[in-house]
Amino acid sequence: MAFDKVLKNVINKCLKQPKLLRCLSTHFKHDIEDHVGSKIKWTSTLDFVSPDCFSPIPTYRVLDSRGNILNKFEEPAIENATLEKMYKDMILVNTMDKVLYESQRQGRISFYMTNYGEEATHMGSAAALDLNDLVYGQYREVGVLIWRGFTLSEIMNQCYGNCLDPGKGKQMPIHYGSKRLNFVTISSPLATQIPQAAGSAYALKNQNRVVMCYFGEGAASEGDAHAAFNFAATLDCPVIFFCRNNGYAISTPTEDQYRGDGIAVRGPGYGITTVRVDGNDVLAVYNATKAAREFCLERSKPVLIEALTYRVGHHSTSDDSTAYRSQKEVDERIQNDNPVKKLRLYLENKNLWNEEKEKEWLHLTKRNVLEAFNAAEKILLPKWTEMFTDVYGVIPHHLRKQMNEMEKHLENYRDHYPLEKYST
Amino acid sequence: MARVAAVRMLNAVTSKYANTNCRTLSMTSVAKAKEVAVRDALNAALDEELERDDRVFLMGEEVAVYDGAYKVSRGLWKKYGDKRIVDTPITEIGFTGIAVGAAMAGLRPICEFMTFNFAMQSIDHILNSAGKMFYMSAGRVNVPIVFRGPNGAAAGVAAQHSQCYGAWYAHCPGLKVLSPYSAEDARGLLKSAIRDPDPVVILENEMLYGVKYPLSDEALSKDFLIPIGKAKIERDGTHVTIVSHSKGVETSLLAAKELQAIGIEAEVINLRSLRPLDFEAISNSVKKTNHLITVEQGWPSHGVGAEICARVMESDTFFHLDQPAIRVTGADVPMAYAKALEDASLPSPADIVDVAKRILST
Ligand SMILES: Cc1ncc(C[n+]2csc(CCOP(=O)(O)OP(=O)(O)O)c2C)c(N)n1
Ligand SMILES: [Mg+2]
């Protein structure tokens, strides 16, 4: 009754304004189906959406834990040499991590982070990319660089900050970068790479390249991550957001980092095509990344990949993880869900690898790693003038003045300084 | 009374700092001062203030289960639990905003940054919300919050982890900015900051966390507070005034020792507070020594030293200077990783000695 009355009033008002009546009449014919661009589905049931009313996004895998193919149609056609390289590079990363981690313990470098447990995320994704694609890393992706051709010497020189370090001793250890390999120098403040990757992808649209952006599930909490997802979606950026969900952010386990179905579930929320993969299954990571890359290029749109893996090592050389997780937990992961072992079993099943090759490769990598390491330690330090260069494109007057003062000072007091250690 | 006693017993059982706590309760003076590391002084101050006021809580990355990235909150989570010691996801802008909101609603958050470099993510909440809310609400909403964490250069962590934010924060009205040097500073300033009704930024120094300094019985008292805005004369002298803060005070004291050997008596002023700045202490000292050197790890342009020199120029202190005041600062470049470049980027005692000799010999 009351409703009729209201309606009458409205219609009376509208009669005085014919334009309004027209609007009103179409409204009665059919509901609007679109809210300024986004679709609407009407309901007369008052239903809140609970996070529990979705089942978890499934995790894609190709291999079982014994290295057997689960579904033969999913087995990627990767050349034998490439498969072998994947495995060899994993061992190389492990060997290198061991040496550099120990060298930090001995005080020879100031800082290091290992990659143990995440080898498959590196090799599987790197192998599916093109060298021309631009890569942004977080810091625990050295395998990607190695895959792309970063040499052991380049790694060691960077960690030592010697005069052959392309970064000229200006950046912390493991903050690698390589223009040649399209790998953007690592930045310490978390998550800054994520919106920057979206921005680069925006700039590189329609050039048959994608941008690959790695980040941890911890970094995904930063505001930058959310901004990046939204912008990449609305600006149609060809970027792959690759989240290495390794269970921890230093001591913080995922259950304290986020609620809900991990990082993957955020993708659809931002309108981003998403997949979750077993990050310890190199073939699954490869397939997912390859498909994501094709999708990015074809549609000029972002993709989110969440790779489930496990950080086997301490967070960094500043961390002791026994304070917050049990050795048993770590051992069980190494035993039951080991990406390197899984690939080895797969290769052995295909007769591509055996104990003899293993021994030979281990021996060779150890030798190569130690050689590069020892060589880097002996290389001269960057010239002291590096302190003043690269602040600006052209050295400003006040810095040049100070540099000249320092030069004079060093001339006068050369006996007091170990100048022989510096390159000239 | 009974509650206090019970808590005291709890301290004795659970706290690593049981000894410290017991000492604070004794009223008899002990001749020899106790040596306490800055980290432990901060820890005890947090412990006492958490105990004193249940509106106080600590929030930040890794502060609870992990005891803090630099172990400043060691044992506090075990003692106070999840409600008072809160681990957060890695979202500085998020937990800073939450802490500011909690402060506006009447709690007293202590917001720990893993380093002040990461507080850059939160700068809007610190300046635009915490720093201005009292003014914007015409005095109706105050924000009793403490932002703290290590500031300045650590060792071997390069450009993005090594810079001094002293000048940044001290630039902004609405904030109080403290920069402790010794264990006494750390303890007294933190306690004052927690009890203060306004937002206070405490710039600690990672390199000083492990350094031990004597704490007198007075400083060990539970109600030991250092007034915000007052400097401390660390060393008396008559020939030259050296003004510094944080780690720079250590460098200045080392320089003063070297200068003493050549007959120069330097007066070393530890600012303790960058905003408000105790200009009176500086002025009084300059009137006595007629020479001024400022020392800081931060960059020279628009820095703490620049501010001090400007205030000298603007006041009658200027007429007491026999020579131009000189700033000794960090080099005007981002911090490099390589140790040799890092060392060359920071002020050393030799730099101060050079400057002192130069202005005193002409
Ligand atoms: C803005 C910012 N906040 C905090 C840190 C300190 N920090 C460095 S790594 C890290 C954990 C990151 O975890 P995650 O993203 O999961 O990567 P993972 O280490 O697991 O590979 C933290 C908190 C930082 N570097 N930058
Ligand atoms: Mg992680």
From TrEMBL, chain A:
Keyword NAD among UniProt keywords: no
Organism superkingdom: Eukaryota
MF terms in GO: branched-chain 2-oxo acid dehydrogenase activity; metal ion binding
One Pfam family, short name: E1_dh
Reactions mediated catalytically: N(6)-[(R)-lipoyl]-L-lysyl-[protein] + 3-methyl-2-oxobutanoate + H(+) = N(6)-[(R)-S(8)-2-methylpropanoyldihydrolipoyl]-L-lysyl-[protein] + CO2
GO CC annotations, alphabetized: mitochondrial matrix
Alphabetically ordered keywords of this record: Metal-binding, Mitochondrion, Oxidoreductase, Potassium, Thiamine pyrophosphate, Transit peptide
Compartments it resides in: Mitochondrion matrix
Keyword Transit peptide assigned: yes
Entry EC number(s): 1.2.4.4
Record-annotated Dehydrogenase E1 component domain positions: 88-378
Needed cofactors: thiamine diphosphate
GO BP term, example: branched-chain amino acid catabolic process
Function: The branched-chain alpha-keto dehydrogenase complex catalyzes the overall conversion of alpha-keto acids to acyl-CoA and CO(2). It contains multiple copies of three enzymatic components: branched-chain alpha-keto acid decarboxylase (E1), lipoamide acyltransferase (E2) and lipoamide dehydrogenase (E3).
Family assignment from sequence similarity: Belongs to the BCKDHA family.
Alphabetical list of PANTHER family matching this protein: 2-OXOISOVALERATE DEHYDROGENASE SUBUNIT ALPHA, MITOCHONDRIAL
Protein name: 2-oxoisovalerate dehydrogenase subunit alpha
Naturally occurring in which organism (per UniProt): Agrilus planipennis
Organism placement in taxonomy: Eukaryota, Metazoa, Ecdysozoa, Arthropoda, Hexapoda
UniProtKB/TrEMBL annotation, chain B:
All residue ranges annotated as the Transketolase-like pyrimidine-binding domain in the record: 36-211
Chief place where the protein resides: mitochondrion
Reaction(s) this enzyme catalyzes, per UniProt: N(6)-[(R)-lipoyl]-L-lysyl-[protein] + pyruvate + H(+) = N(6)-[(R)-S(8)-acetyldihydrolipoyl]-L-lysyl-[protein] + CO2
Cited CDD domains: TPP_PYR_E1-PDHc-beta_like
Entry GO MF terms: metal ion binding; pyruvate dehydrogenase (acetyl-transferring) activity
Cofactor(s) demanded: thiamine diphosphate
Entry keyword set: Metal-binding, Mitochondrion, Oxidoreductase, Potassium, Pyruvate, Thiamine pyrophosphate, Transit peptide
EC numbers on record: 1.2.4.1
One CC-aspect GO term: mitochondrion
Top EC class for this record: oxidoreductase
GO biological process: pyruvate decarboxylation to acetyl-CoA
Localization: Mitochondrion
Job of this protein: The pyruvate dehydrogenase complex catalyzes the overall conversion of pyruvate to acetyl-CoA and CO2.
NCBIfam families, per the entry: PRK09212.1 (NF006667), PRK11892.1 (NF008854)
Name used for this protein in its record: Pyruvate dehydrogenase E1 component subunit beta
Source organism of this protein record: Agrilus planipennis (Emerald ash borer)
Lineage of producing organism: Eukaryota, Metazoa, Ecdysozoa, Arthropoda, Hexapoda
